[in-house]
Amino acid sequence: KLIIVFIFLITAVFHFFYYTNYKYYKEVLGGRNRYRWIEYGITATMMIFVLCLISGVKELYATLSTVFLSIIMMSFGYFFEMSKDPKVKLSAIIMGFFALVCIWSIILGQFIPNIISAKNDQDYDIPDWVYGVLFPMIFWWVSFGIVAVLNYKAYRKKGYDFSRYERYYILLSYFSKAFMGYYLTFGLSRDAPEKNS
Q1: Dihedral angle sign, alpha carbons of residues 79, 37, 163, 169
Q2: Most distant CA pair in the chain: distance in Å?
Q3: Neighbours of 47 (CB within 10 A)
Q4: What is the pTM of this model?
Q5: Residue 196 pLDDT
Q6: What's 30's DSSP letter?
């Protein structure tokens, strides 16, 4: 619960900085936002850690792998925005998606067997909301990559406007964190699953 509060607090601090500091506007006019990747490096990594906890990733090295892969994935986003070379940008997108697939393979590789075991072997009645956390989160995480792809395609054309994609990132950041916060708060306030027998 405390981690979720910190995720929102850190996001709020960064967004307050974005809307009150001229340095942010200079960044956006320059076709990048280096501050965003610092924010995501912190908050996305915390989100991945929480998702590992709720999906039952109990292996220490598996959890650490997802955390470090999240940081690496954010660094690819940073390199994407910092580079002017379209080939470097494309490489950053490809490597970012590779890291994303690795992260979710680890999480789902633990979540699905844990759910099957709890339902079939231990005869627990798994509430529907449990399924409603992870799978939509995959959608939100993939959406950031889709924005990067659209950004890359627009970058190669005349009249490129980075601020458009910056707005998309801000909206996705808000909705993905709000969704996760709502579902986890909802889930944590529910009674523990009961055995069917």
Answers
A1: positive
A2: 65
A3: 22
A4: 0.84
A5: 55
A6: T
Mean pLDDT of 6-14: 89
- The answer to whether the CB of 81 falls within 8 A of the CB of 37 is yes
User: CA 125, CA 104: separation in Å to the nearest integer?
Assistant: 25
Q: What is the rounded distance in angstroms from the CA atom of residue 145 to the CA atom of residue 151? A: 10
How many angstroms separate the CA atoms of 22 and 97, rounded?
32
State the DSSP string of 51-109: HHHHHT---HHHHHHHHHHHHHHHHHHHHHHH---HHHHHHHHHHHHHHHHHHHHHHHH
Q: How far is CA 47 from CA 34, 43, 70, 166, 197, in A?
A: 20, 6, 10, 21, 35
Positive/negative CA dihedral, 109, 50, 128, 103: negative
Structure token digits, residue 164: 């458009």
CA-CA distances (angstroms) from residue 83 to 23, 33, 126? 19, 12, 46
CA distance 122 to 103: 27
**What is the arithmetic mean of pLDDT over 156-168?**
91
Find where tokens 């650490």 sit: 64
CA distance 89 to 143: 17
